[in-house]
Amino acid sequence: MEPKHIDFMAVAGKNPAAELRKYSEEHGDFCRIVPGKSVETLFDAFDVQDWVAPEVEAIVRKYAEMENPGKDDGISYIRKGENPGDPVVEYRNGMTDASVCLSLSAPEFE
User: Fold this and answer.
1) Tens digits of pLDDT across the chain (110 residues)
2) Structural domains of the chain, ranges and CATH numbers in brackets
């Protein structure tokens, strides 16, 4: 059986970005990391094996569920699976200047 794959994107403030960056580095640099002009960083993972999701989402949930997050704790995260019926998972705490979302990319809808 082929391993399942996921795509995810996150905009993270300084604190979650440090944890996500470290996790990615420790596991083969599985996502593209783009520092922003502010303290936020974009994490973009395309077609990575789904074993990544639980650990990444543990980090994300830690910040999304904080009682009183500060600007450095901001997180906006979305994940989708490889199949159309796979659930979309979102976490955010409203503390990021940017946010991530799914977008429609279909030429017939121009």
Assistant:
1) 777 889 999 999 999 999 999 999 999 999 999 999 888 999 999 999 989 999 999 999 999 999 999 999 999 999 998 888 888 999 999 999 988 987 655 555 44
2) 5-101 (3.30.70)
CA distance 46 to 60: 17
Pairing relationship of beta strands 5-12 and 75-81 according to DSSP bridges = antiparallel
* C-alpha to C-alpha distance for 99 and 110, rounded to whole angstroms: 24
CB 42 within 8 A of CB 33: yes
Q: Could you give the 3-state DSSP secondary structure of residue 78?
A: strand
Phi, psi of 42 (to 5 degrees): -95, 130
Name the percent of the chain in helix, strand, coil, to the closest 5.
30, 30, 40
Query: Backbone dihedral region of 40: left (phi > 0), alpha (psi from -120 to 50 degrees) or beta?
Result: beta
SS3 category, 85: coil
